Amino acid sequence: MTCTRGAASVAPLSIPFRLKARHLAGPFSFQETRFMSASLIFDIAPLGSLVAYSDGQPKPPSRFTRKLAAWKSRNGVGRLVRKEPGRERPTYTTPPSFTLHEGNFGEGGIILITVLRSYGIDSDLSFRVIERPKIGQVRVVQDVGGNVELLHLAEDREAAELWLAGKGYSRARLEGIAADEVGAYAIEGRTAA
Fold first, then answer.
1. Distance, first Cα to last Cα, the chain
2. Are 28 and 177 in contact (CB under 8 A)?
3. What are phi and psi of 97, to 5 degrees?
4. pTM score, two decimals?
5. Which residue, 36, 63, 40, is CA-closest to 52?
6. Shortest CA distance to 127 belongs to which of 68, 179, 189?
7. Scanning 43, 65, 134, 168, which has the fewest C-beta atoms within 10 Å of its C-beta?
8. How far from 8 is each of 41, 50, 70, 94, 110, CA to CA, in Å?
9. Which residues pair with 173 in a beta bridge?
10. Cα–Cα dist 79/70, whole Å
11. H or E stretch including 29?
12. Which helix (H) or strand (E) holds 68?
């Protein structure tokens, strides 16, 4: 189950799926080399992780614009910003899901479109954690409908406070990433393999 928020004409980030984490700019320290199901991403990937997704198909040549657009909608990279538990209603049931932030598009420092993609744990795509947040980084998060949503991932507390002061989120809070959290995810990832 995939839904896209934002304009349909906006292409996802153009980071190649097979790119190694050491080549990406960013404050990360951990790379997952194996593919996982959406369910495993939901269970063990921490908020702020960079997650790649793929349908396993090769990228078509750029001259095939429609095929390339379809391929890009099923192959990309995004930052894990939200996890939502499943819901049961009298008329429908939705599985647990997670949301990846693929990018902001705008001009002159003004964000016009934010591209988010949500995936249910029953997704047929393969996922891989490219990098996880490292010790010392700080998440800026807020509670939305009983769930936690990542607004920003900062290098340290000072950078997080500066970002938060400039954005004006009144319900946001800071969460530091500690050694015990990084260690717990590493252990869970090994046992789930």
1. 24
2. no
3. -145, 165
4. 0.73
5. 36
6. 189
7. 168
8. 25, 22, 11, 23, 19
9. 141
10. 21
11. strand 28-30
12. helix 65-73
- Nearest residue to 98 (alpha-carbon basis) of 56, 133, 148, 138: 148
Radius of gyration over alpha carbons of the chain, in Å?
17
Q: What is the pLDDT of residue 191?
A: 42
The tens digit of pLDDT for each residue in 130-169 reads 999 999 999 999 998 888 999 999 999 999 999 999 888 8
Site of tokens 């198909």: 57
Residue 184: what pLDDT? 54
Look at residue 95 and tell me whether its pLDDT is greater than 50: yes
Token pair of 167 as six digits: 């954005």
- Paired strand residues for 114: 104
Contact (Cβ atoms closer than 8 angstroms) between residue 151 and residue 141: yes
Token match 């960013």: residue? 26
Is there a contact between 15 and 76 (Cβ–Cβ < 8 Å)? yes
User: Which helix (DSSP H) or strand (DSSP E) does residue 153 occupy?
Assistant: strand 147-154
Q: Extract the tokens encoding 64.
A: 């095939």
Q: Which two tokens stand for residue 190?
A: 């090994």
- Cβ 85 vs Cβ 70: under 8 Å: no
Residue 113 in tokens: 């479109």
By CB neighbour count within 10 A (0-12 exposed, 13-18 middle, 19+ buried), where does 9 fall?
exposed
16 phi, psi to nearest 5 deg: -60, 140
Q: How confident is the model at residue 5, as a pLDDT?
A: 40
